[in-house]
Specification:
alpha/beta; Rossmann fold; 3 domains; six-stranded parallel beta sheet; 18 strands; 16% strand
């Protein structure tokens, strides 16, 4: 066989079922090898979307998703989605083509140093120069991509190497157990927790990557300690739980921070500083932090934990839970007063129906129409704060958002990946009009794949989050508004179904309608962000933490 065929056999051995991308002439041998394999190749309409899909498949399955591009401009189009996978802790393999490296075919036409370009945004980047090395290279790429912290890896396959005869067989994929925390470290954590008066558990993205839901739920229920989450930690423990206080959608000064600041110990499970911080540490704090993660803390000015327990998260929590005793003198009274206040406050701001819809109303409607296991994917925009704050997430990885790179354009591709992996679940992509148009061409891909998918476009004719920031800084309203296409006509032009929300109640009506139908459905919803400044800035500045 040739090197391209051997590479594909190695990908099959790793459990790869799909490859997404936009091929070029340098990939044709690889494309032919995929055609004769068990792997399904899906042409996307932009390389960035292929990368977002691959990253999300890695996020949902734990097996690196795979995407493909040609050299030069194809490879540069993968950069954003490689950074998305890398910062988001999503295992993914990015394969790019290259001109022949053993002869000159067209001078330096389209050639850039792709391997070096990917170096800062991947865990491993390598050019394949010898087909005989492919089994080892692929096995190492997948091992590294899955190793904590998961992320992006990149392989470049030059055109002439792809054609060369290669012998060899895929390397066996041996399962590796993750290291467990040292006993003294566990015991010190137990001592700190038992000594504390008002401990809190924080659940971050690292706890969401691995299946830690059961052991964390057991720990929280055994100890009675309340918990809150980061944006990317939502759903690890059901937010129906009586001990759930809320999500730190902002880094400081939200109502949840009244409880966080009242705590004297944060048991920080699975968070690291790549995700936007859920709270800010200060040297004058009396509160301590225990860092529980697969890897040591990255210390900076706002995060410097007093103790670290490094090892497999689930094993760590199980060990601590086995040793700890529920303390009768822990005082959680303030936390539950804040919980009661927050629940009443959130309900009060979603009661009033109006048109255009407020973001709080939209969150409420989506939650009412989705089952526990159904999946919502978010692009990046102002609405993400409201979903993080208000959308009660009941199971792991059922609210997919990015709070690490926080890239626009990922909402629709992520939803496509979720639907491919879980065809039996309802999947909704929530996109702003700015983010949606960055990858709207993938409507054609979704329609071609016959996905049953719903996309909600929140139209405010502006880059709403930056506009909000502009206002909070006291700056002029400038340069952030734009026009939009007819989204309903756009959807129909791609073979999808389009709906225009024109009055209060239409969103609820259309959601019920599309869930009973096959195909791709786009619902355009005008959104009113006018309360954001009052609720998220003025009100929070004036709030008091005295209850």
């Amino acid at each position: 066989m040739n090197s391209a065929q051997l590479l594909v056999k190695c990908l099959e051995s790793e459990g790869v079922k799909y490859i997404f991308g936009v091929p070029g002439e340098e990939n044709l041998q690889l494309l032919q090898a995929i055609k004769n394999s068990s792997i399904k190749f899906v042409v996307t309409r932009h390389e960035q979307a292929a990368g977002f899909i691959a990253a999300t498949i890695g996020r949902l399955t734990g097996i690196p998703g795979v995407c493909l591009s040609t050299l030069g401009p194809g490879a540069t189009n993968l950069v954003t989605s490689a950074a998305y996978a890398q910062l988001g802790g999503m295992p993914a393999l990015f394969i790019t083509g290259q001109k022949p490296i053993k002869k000159s075919k067209q001078g330096n036409f389209q050639i850039i140093n792709t391997v070096e370009m990917f170096r800062p945004i991947t865990k491993l980047t390598k050019q394949i120069i010898n087909g005989e090395m492919i089994p080892m290279i692929v096995r190492e790429a997948f091992r590294v991509a899955k190793l904590e912290r998961p992320g992006a890896v990149h392989l470049e396959l030059p055109e002439d190497v792809a054609e060369e005869i290669a012998t060899g067989v895929p390397m066996i994929n041996h399962h590796t157990r993750r290291p467990v925390a040292e006993e003294k470290s566990i015991k010190k954590a137990v001592e700190m927790i038992e000594k504390a008066e008002r401990p809190l558990v924080l659940i971050g993205a690292g706890a969401n990557r691995k299946r830690t839901s059961r052991v964390l739920t057991d720990f929280i229920e055994k100890t009675g300690i309340p918990f809150f989450t980061t944006q990317m930690g939502k759903g690890v423990v059901t937010e129906k739980h009586l001990q759930y206080l809320g999500t730190a959608a902002l880094s400081e000064n939200d109502y949840i921070h009244c409880a966080i600041n009242k705590s004297d110990l944060i048991i920080n499970v699975g968070h690291d500083t790549i995700e936007k911080p859920p709270f800010i540490m200060d040297e004058s704090d009396r509160r301590e932090v225990i860092h529980i993660n697969f890897f040591p803390a990255i210390v900076d000015q706002i995060y410097f934990p007093q103790h670290e327990v490094v090892g497999d998260i689930a094993n760590t929590i199980r060990q601590i839970g086995n040793l700890i005793s529920k303390k009768s003198d822990w005082d959680f009274s303030y936390f539950y007063k804040m919980q009661k206040y927050l629940n009443a406050h959130f309900q009060s701001i979603t009661k009033r129906e109006r048109f255009p819809y407020s973001p709080q109303q939209i969150v409420k409607v989506i939650r009412q129409n989705m089952a526990e296991e159904d999946i919502v994917t978010l692009d990046n925009g102002m609405y993400k704060i409201w979903f993080a704050r208000n959308y009660h997430t009941l199971k792991q990885n059922t609210l997919l958002l990015d709070n690490a790179l926080a890239s626009m354009g990922a909402g629709l591709p992520s939803a496509m990946a979720a639907k491919i992996i879980f065809p039996e679940k309802k999947v909704i992509a929530i996109c702003g009009d700015g983010g949606f148009l960055m990858n709207s061409q993938e409507l054609e891909t979704a329609n071609r794949l016959k996905l049953d998918l719903t996309i909600i476009i929140l139209r405010d004719n502006a880059f709403g989050m930056i506009k909000w920031k502009q206002k909070t800084m006291g700056l002029d309203d400038f340069a952030l508004s734009f026009g939009n296409p007819d989204f309903v006509a756009l959807a129909k032009s791609y073979g999808a179904n389009g709906y225009q929300v024109e009055k209060s109640g239409d969103l609820e009506k259309y959601l019920k309608e599309v869930f009973d139908k096959k195909g791709v459905h786009l619902i355009e919803v005008p959104i009113d962000y006018s309360d954001d400044y009052r609720i998220l800035v003025k009100e929070l500045k004036e709030k008091t933490c005295i209850l």
